[in-house]
Recover the amino acids of this structure.
């Protein structure tokens, strides 16, 4: 076929033809299936398909005229012009040859799986996306649970139009990409039935400390779009690579997320997915078990090693996964290079250590959440509820919202920091905040209610994995140390550490290991429940603060399992 390539025909060399996402799926489908990594089959339209759509409808000149002289900082004008371009493409006629080839390829995919009108994911893959130095994450649209040729054609056209979402236009312009040097490929891939199971994102590197020895896994119930869009606080797990490779199960961290909603298939006509409230018993349990966490971490190691060998250098990866409720298997549905930590050393000739440190002793904590990065920032709170309010946002303000949808990228650029009610360390907002170098705290649960417009606050991500929002503009300093050429001291330097949540950051300091780790500090900082209270609870005795402790242990069989697991995790992290 002229405009179609199946995954078995694609490799990582085909980014100019089918974009980073689809080239990577072909690479894994061809080369990693025999290593145990499962990838659902599918096919992609080529960049020529997108260009023939524009050419056959004489759209290129019209699009240039619409975008000519656009100031991307003017969010209202950006919104207006980007919408005009999308409507132009949506109103265009799909070339007959392209439409027939998509139908033919879909029929072949249905035959491959032995079913008629199988459900597919229809994903956009731009030819400049998923490069090692730019994530392009969430710039274009994805459509899930699509079946039948008519819906497939409609969804493909929507993907073509999504090359001109507000965020995509802004992102390309701000990074010097010509709008017409980038084409769009549509990936059509068999759906994994994670609507009745779980899905998530994982990184083969710690996204905040940059430790290459860790795999970070996030997981939620249902389809994975809620994690990407930052609409849920997911479960989070960390696995240690060196002992994983020795055949052990080194899960260093298990953190229960609230997972308040989950995305499932919809029965409504024209509506393919919907969000429902997650039942309480499912919220209070981990969405994957230990064996599945270890399997995912092993996938991450295999994928990272393969892409590092291809690149001829260390290449940490950002992956999306989904568990199929029908066969119980876990599938990789996307893999792309990690773009923040992997680029830090390349941008600086020497290895710098940057420390942010609060100087104020009087501190009033307003909110806690998950820290993204290690920065500190102060400013005035500006709560945004929808894109209609973007034009009021001023440079240097602190963006506060329920979640930061990918459409919000133009306003994120103006913010000195970001605070959200929901989201985890691997949501799109967290990825973009890291790439922009903005302090962000996600998953605070009630930031939009607790904070008020105009309040002066300080956002601190410099105190471990727990991010803190303080009342007022607190004083802080930034210290930049060149540690590349430090000479080793005659005296061995061992660190005293009691907070497991700071261990991965502190490990970046030049040191010879741990000198002292006091268990009572691990209990205070990480377990956060007195051992004797847990013993009493185990023995059905009444205790103080029963409700808060019960909340902390709800994902575990009993207080004993909670204490043993948390203590071993805390010691393991250190």
């Amino acid at each position: 076929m002229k405009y179609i390539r199946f995954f078995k025909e694609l490799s990582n060399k085909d980014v100019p033809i089918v974009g980073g996402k689809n080239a990577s799926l072909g690479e894994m489908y061809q080369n990693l299936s025999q290593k145990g990594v499962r990838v659902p089959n599918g096919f992609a339209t080529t960049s020529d398909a997108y260009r023939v759509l524009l050419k056959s409808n004489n759209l290129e000149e019209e699009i240039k005229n619409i975008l000519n002289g656009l100031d991307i900082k003017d969010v209202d004008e950006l919104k207006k012009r980007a919408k005009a371009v999308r409507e132009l493409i949506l109103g265009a006629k799909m070339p007959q040859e392209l439409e027939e080839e998509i139908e033919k390829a879909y029929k072949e995919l249905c035959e491959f799986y032995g079913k008629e009108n199988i459900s597919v994911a229809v994903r956009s893959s731009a030819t400049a996306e998923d490069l090692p130095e730019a994530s392009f994450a969430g710039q274009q649209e994805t459509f899930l649970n699509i079946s039948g040729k008519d819906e497939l054609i409609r969804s493909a056209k929507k993907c073509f139009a999504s090359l001109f979402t507000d965020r995509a236009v802004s992102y390309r312009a701000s990074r010097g990409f010509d709008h017409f040097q980038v084409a769009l490929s549509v990936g059509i891939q068999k759906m994994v039935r994670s609507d009745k199971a779980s899905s998530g994102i994982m990184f083969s590197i710690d996204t905040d400390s940059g430790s290459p020895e860790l795999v970070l896994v996030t997981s939620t119930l249902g389809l994975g779009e809620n994690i990407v869009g930052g609409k849920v606080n997911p479960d989070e797990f960390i696995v240690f690579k060196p002992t994983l490779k020795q055949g052990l199960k080194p899960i260093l961290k298990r953190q229960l997320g609230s997972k308040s909603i989950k995305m499932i298939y919809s029965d409504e006509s024209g509506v393919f997915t919907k969000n429902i409230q997650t039942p309480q018993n499912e919220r209070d349990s981990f969405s994957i078990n230990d064996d599945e966490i270890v399997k995912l971490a092993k996938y991450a190691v295999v994928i990272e090693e393969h892409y590092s060998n291809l690149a001829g250098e260390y290449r940490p990866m950002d992956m999306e996964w989904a568990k199929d409720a029908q066969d119980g298997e876990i599938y990789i549905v996307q893999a792309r290079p990690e773009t923040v930590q992997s680029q830090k050393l390349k941008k600086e000739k020497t290895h710098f250590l940057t420390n942010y440190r609060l100087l104020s002793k009087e501190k009033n904590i307003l909110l806690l959440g998950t820290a993204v990065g290690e920065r500190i920032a102060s400013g005035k709170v500006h709560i945004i509820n929808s894109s209609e309010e973007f034009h009021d946002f001023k440079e240097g303000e602190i963006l506060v919202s329920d979640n930061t949808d990918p459409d919000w990228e133009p306003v994120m650029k103006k913010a000195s920091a970001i605070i959200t009610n929901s989201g985890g360390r691997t949501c799109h907002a967290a990825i973009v905040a890291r790439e922009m170098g903005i302090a962000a705290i996600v998953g605070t649960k009630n930031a939009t209610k607790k904070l008020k417009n105009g309040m002066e606050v300080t956002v601190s991500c410099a105190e471990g994995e727990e991010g803190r929002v303080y009342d007022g503009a607190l004083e802080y300093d930034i210290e930049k140390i060149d540690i590349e050429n430090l000479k080793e001291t005659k005296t061995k330097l061992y660190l005293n550490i009691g907070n497991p949540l700071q261990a991965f950051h502190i490990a970046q300091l030049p040191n010879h290991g741990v000198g002292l780790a006091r268990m009572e500090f691990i209990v205070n900082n990480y377990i956060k429940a007195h051992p004797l209270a847990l013993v009493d609870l185990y023995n059905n005795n009444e205790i103080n603060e029963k409700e808060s402790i019960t909340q902390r242990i709800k994902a575990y069989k009993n207080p004993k399992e909670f204490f043993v697991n948390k203590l071993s995790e805390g010691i393991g992290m250190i």
